[in-house]
Design goal:
It is a single chain. With 317 residues, the chain is of the alpha/beta class. It has a domain of 220 residues: TIM Barrel (Alpha-Beta Barrel). It is built from 13 helices and eight strands. Strands 1-2-3-4-5-6-7-8 form an eight-stranded parallel barrel, surrounded by four helices. The radius of gyration is 19 Å and the shape is globular. The structure holds NADP nicotinamide-adenine-dinucleotide phosphate. NADP nicotinamide-adenine-dinucleotide phosphate binds next to strand 8 and helix 12.
Length: 317
Amino acid sequence: MTSTTAPAVALGTWAWGDSGEVGDGYFGSELTASGLREVAEQALSTGFTLWDTAAVYGMGRSETVLAQALKGYDRGDYQLSTKFTPQIAGDGDDPVADMLEQSLDRLGTDYVDLYWIHNPADVARWTPYLIPLLRSGRVKHVGVSNHNLKEIALADEILGDAGFRVEAVQNHYSVLHRSSERAGILEHCREHDVRFFSYMVLEQGALTGRYSPAHPLPEGSSRAAVYNGMLPRLRALTDRMAAIGDDRGASAADVATAWAIAKGTTPIVGVTKVGHLDGVVRARGIELTGEEIAELEALADAADVDTRGSWEHDMER
Ligand SMILES: NC(=O)c1ccc[n+]([C@@H]2O[C@H](COP(=O)([O-])OP(=O)(O)OC[C@H]3O[C@@H](n4cnc5c(N)ncnc54)[C@H](OP(=O)(O)O)[C@@H]3O)[C@@H](O)[C@H]2O)c1
């Protein structure tokens, strides 16, 4: 997937894995099949056609619900990105092909546009399994997620020996969490025409300005446990993002997404409501000045919070 063939923003469906779950789930969002169908319709009608999911999101539920939401649309009208997660690999001869087949089954398709190794559990062991999948056409493009520069280079070398390459990188990258930039991964991607997908640009809702100590993230959810305690320290940043947005008829969330676009990345925004698509459309149209970008980054640094996910290792190692 080169810089010219993907939309400016991809749509994430980790939260969709909570759908229909008894209890609070990871996000504590109350999502319905009809609501997500509306999200999909609005997305496709506004040109946001690339959907990111993973076998592990809700242990298959995200993929199943996504397929239902996209039902009836031509397969050529949207693109699917899903992942092999080493931690849930089976013990067959080819655990990557097995996990892909299960994803294809849930997604109701016979190929995925972009397939990821979800994390660098063992790069030398898992990367080679992508090669037959690329050759068979079951997978059109491949990428690596949560890999540091050395791990990206190793995966690229393994694929390169077979005539393929790492075509995309997907890492946590928000104004609050810029380790991939400090580690030179953004620069590497720019230099080698590798698309960098930034995930959690909204820090799971904490950067939208919609949540505060008086109106916290849903109680009992995993994201609440991570972010609710930080919300008071994020206030100056989200207030400034809201003010920058106000001048352009946009929200703090739109500015957080526009920041990631301005940095040359493709944000994956975890949309859960139909109105979020309007935000994505606005974000695509916002041009932040260099001064605004520097100001937001300084406010983010002053908040002094660490939002690295429990699944991520240190990119600057
Ligand atoms: N490769 C990896 O290891 C990895 C890790 C994490 C995420 N990802 C991918 O990246 C995607 C994005 O990350 P994420 O979903 O965890 O978090 P995110 O995009 O930072 O935040 C998503 C949350 O923000 C709110 N939201 C979304 N769009 C909004 C908008 N336009 N305006 C206001 N609020 C908005 C929603 O919360 P409410 O429902 O409360 O409104 C939603 O649940 C995931 O869905 C997944 O596809 C990949």
